[in-house]
Amino acid sequence: MRADIARLLHEDPSEIGDDDSLIDLGLDSMRAMNLLLLWSERGLSLDFGEFAEELTLNTWWAIVERRQKAQAGG
Fold it and tell me: For the whole model, what pTM was predicted?
């Protein structure tokens, strides 16, 4: 996830902290949608509305973990 975001923003992954605002780093709604489409193609069913609420890696990881648990039935 961090690597995909870094690639999109032309940043080194180590420069993106877990609690950094991705908006402050240059992530706009179109880029966020592109990321969700990419991850959807990789098998993650994600909702843009959830991701748009707070744009940090920590928040996004929590959303992904919840989704994976729900998809696994538990």
Answer: 0.84
